[in-house]
Amino acid sequence: MVRLKNRYLLLDILYPDSTTWPTTTVSSGPQAAQLAIHAPTSDALTPGLLAKMIREEVGEMYGDWGVGKLGGASAMGVQVKYLSPATSTAIIRCPRAAFRLVWSALTYMSHVPAVTEPGAGVGQRRPNGGRERPCVFRVLRVSGTMRKAEEEAIRRARREIVRVRGVEEKGVLGDLISGAERGMSVGGSRTVVTGIMDESEDDGMFDDDDD
Predict the structure, then answer these.
(1) pTM, entire model
(2) Does the domain formed by 6-116+127-161 have CATH 2.40.50.100?
(3) 34 phi and psi, to 5 degrees?
(4) Would you indicate the residue range of the signal peptide (predicted)?
(5) Per-residue confidence at 99, pLDDT binned at 50, 70, 90?
(6) Strand pairing class (136-143; 89-95)
(7) CB count in 10 Å sphere of residue 42
(8) What count of other Cβ atoms lies within 10 Å of the Cβ of residue 122?
(9) Are the beta carbons of 112 and 123 closer than 8 angstroms?
(10) Cα gap 48→43, rounded to integer Å
(11) Which residue from 5, 8, 35, 9 is spatially nearest to 22, judged by alpha carbons?
(12) From CA 210, how far away is CA 96, in angstroms rounded?
């Protein structure tokens, strides 16, 4: 029996356009901006819709040849195995021979369905550009198994949480330490603060778990 080998692309959806951010987010400093870039995605983006968008983009870029590499227009060559609108994270499965086509298609995809605003009517267009929201699809890791992609997604989610909390704690501790140093400057005392360094990040894009 021939074993069909696939590739799993872990990706996240980013929103770098500050004009789509809430006004309070723009004026709240770098921490809020970091959260806004990784903002949630509308529930209108379903796994089926995302897979369809990828297939259409591959067809537009590479024509019938690209669609054939995915297994044909009616085949399930591209499948969204995981999609979380809350974290704007997805895992795409595609044939191993065509994962670069899918990757390039994701690079050129620039819009997702916009978040429905409270009180907006059905089909009502948003002031910031209609029913679509500009975004960037960033491929984080290419793996040969679903398990490796899931582990990488969990690791990156934990790192983002630690990074955001670190910014909060650094701001609070900085104010407290500066106040303590000013209060003890008369007596000649000095406060020494040590920080915890984050472990270096592995920027490798490919896993060697499956040839």
Answers:
(1) 0.69
(2) no
(3) -60, -40
(4) none
(5) very high
(6) unpaired
(7) 15
(8) 5
(9) no
(10) 12
(11) 35
(12) 10
Burial 141-152 (b: 16+ CB within 10 A, else e): bbbbeeebbbeb
Tokens of 52: 């369809």
Please identify which residue in the block is written with the tokens 């890791």: 141
Q: Are strands 132-134 and 89-95 parallel, antiparallel or unpaired?
A: unpaired
Q: Summarize pLDDT for 35-57 with one digit per residue, the tens.
A: 778 888 888 999 999 999 999 99
What is the distance between the alpha carbons of residues 177 and 188, in angstroms, rounded to a whole number? 15
Cα–Cα distance, 172 to 98 (Å, whole number): 49
Tokens of 164: 């955001």
CA dist., res. 38 & res. 86, Å (int): 9
Q: Which residues, in sequence order, are bridge partners of residue 142?
A: 9, 206
> SS3 of 7, please?
strand
Mean pLDDT of 169-188: 49
Q: What share of the chain is helix, strand, coil (3-state, %, to 5)?
A: 45, 20, 40
